[in-house]
Amino acid sequence: MAQAVETATRARDPVRVLGALLQLTKPGVTRMVLVTTGIGAILAPGRVELRRLALTVLATAAVVAAANALNMYLERDVDARMERTRLRPLPSDRIAPEVALWFGVVLALLGISALTFWINPLSGLLSAAAISIYVLVYTPLKRVTPYALHVGAIPGAIPPLIGWASVTGQLSLPALSVFAILLVWQIPHFLAIAIFRQSEYAAAGLAVYPAVRGVPAAKRAVLVYSALLLAVSLLPAFTGLGTPLYLGVAAVLGGVQVVIAARGFGAADAHRWARALFYATIPYLLVVYGTLALTAS
Amino acid sequence: MSQVPPMRWWAWGLFAAACLAIPLLGYVLGR
User: Fold this and answer.
1) Closest residue in A to B6 (Cα–Cα)
2) CB-based contact A90 B1, cutoff 8 Å
3) Which residues of chain B make contact with A135, given a CB cutoff of 8 A?
4) B14 touches A: beta carbon within 8 Å
5) pLDDT for A113-133, tens place per residue?
């Protein structure tokens, strides 16, 4: 009886199953990865073939989509406890957990194979490392320590390296400077989300930074990492990638982000400040990466 | 929603090994 009730809500119509599978991939996050992978390829020295670029971006998106699906499979209990996520395909029981699991596994193996055999082994290796760290280290660590955030930033910053490697077949200092920006950028970005969603995350059993170390410590970390981001964003100018125009744009935008971060100490409403900071980090990344791509020498 | 069982480490380890084996195979075949 319980089984009948449980399966009654599951989608049988193929269109609805596909819709649920698409939701498992977190399309918003996957879209952002398309941009960062493409920028990595554009910045790399050498000619970018459109067909090769499209294949790289699509295969990387498949691996990222798989990582998101496997993350949702492993966190379906946590998602069921949060208002914002309880309607996701797994906690709302629109799809069987096994379907999500196999969808993620097959998509990951397909994406890694496409990158390895159609692009080159280095891009395949980078994608394999990213999904392994994301699913096996970051996801379980989120329940244990707030520093999971720092681990999660590593796979999050790998897509531009995949784009770069797809063109050159190797990594170099300029590529690492592009990676470093995305690596550090994620810390204040995700700390901001953790601050304004602190109670929700903590109640669901996730060891988020502001809940474990306190909001003042989280504000200090936001400021420290924003300052570090400003410094790191200047690196491409020293690796021969960034032009003086890029340096100017990165310095001004980085300075603005440091000012917004510092204003957190005087903010009466920490949630409102964190939300504003979060929304400022998105155009920051797009403009900094965009300027780098448009002006790269 | 059904109860979430604890993570089966051996199965996830196998998954990661399969992921990493593909590019390694690519390197071997490409030599």
Assistant:
1) A74
2) yes
3) 12, 15-16
4) no
5) 999 999 999 999 999 999 999
What pTM was computed for the model?
0.92
Residue A178 · residue A43 · CB < 8 Å: yes
Q: Are A131 and A63 in contact (CB under 8 A)?
A: yes
Q: How many residues does chain B have?
A: 31
Contact A31, A284 (CB under 8 A): no
B22 contacts A128? CB cut-off 8 A:
yes
B15: chain A residues, CB-CB within 8 Å: 105, 108, 135-136
Which tokens go with A158? 């790998």
Burial of A231 (0-12, 13-18, 19+ CB in 10 A): exposed
- For residue B11 the two structure tokens come to 């199965």
Residue with the two structure tokens 């891009």: A123
Distance CA A79, CA A65 (A): 17
pLDDT tens for each residue of A175-210 = 999 999 999 999 999 999 999 999 999 888 899 999
